[in-house]
Task: inverse folding
């Protein structure tokens, strides 16, 4: 609980720091933004020593306080496969091991800021989340799974390109750090998608 409260201060501090700026800006009224994206997730650190990269997919919903700032709730799906080194080590212990995967589904709450750049929009975001992880091992045709959930944090930057009055193309990168014990679980993602304003 203390870990969660400590992490919660990150987006709250960002909101409080930005709050004086809200009052000085011309409010365009609250809006909702929704998006969907696909991309590639590359494991790093100890995690990268054991797993290959993965195709990822996600959806987001963002409440915009005005045209520049908002709070975003996002959910991603990533499924990483054990690399050759890990598979060789597992099969040396048990020749019946056929496959090992790690599925990570983060549910993230991020503070988002967007900044005009000519006809484009740059954005930066960061916050905290709960990362739901499922380890699955297939051995002699049978699958065993082990699940856990840990808190983590993420941050990213990207670009929004308007393609219609309320529709945009987005591309971005993000770094995820999961607070697992005894080892680092980190991955870097790049994604592209579409977003809609309401």
Result:
């Amino acid at each position: 609980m203390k870990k969660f409260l400590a992490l919660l201060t990150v987006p709250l501090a960002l909101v409080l720091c930005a709050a004086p700026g809200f009052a000085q800006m011309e409010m365009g009224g609250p809006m909702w933004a929704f998006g969907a994206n696909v991309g590639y997730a590359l494991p790093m650190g100890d995690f990268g020593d054991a797993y290959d990269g993965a195709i990822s997919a996600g959806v987001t919903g963002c409440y915009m306080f005005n045209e520049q700032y908002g709070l975003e709730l996002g959910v991603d799906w990533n499924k990483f496969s054990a690399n050759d080194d890990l598979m060789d080590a597992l099969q040396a212990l048990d020749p019946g091991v056929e496959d090992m995967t790690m599925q990570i589904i983060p549910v993230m709450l991020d503070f988002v800021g967007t900044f005009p750049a000519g006809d484009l929009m740059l954005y930066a975001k960061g916050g905290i989340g709960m990362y739901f992880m499922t380890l699955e091992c297939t051995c002699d045709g049978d699958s065993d799974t082990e699940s856990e959930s840990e808190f983590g944090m993420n941050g990213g930057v990207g670009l929004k390109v308007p393609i219609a009055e309320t529709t945009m193309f987005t591309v971005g990168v993000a770094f995820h750090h999961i607070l697992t014990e005894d080892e680092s679980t980190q991955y870097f993602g790049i994604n592209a998608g579409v977003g809609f304003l309401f």
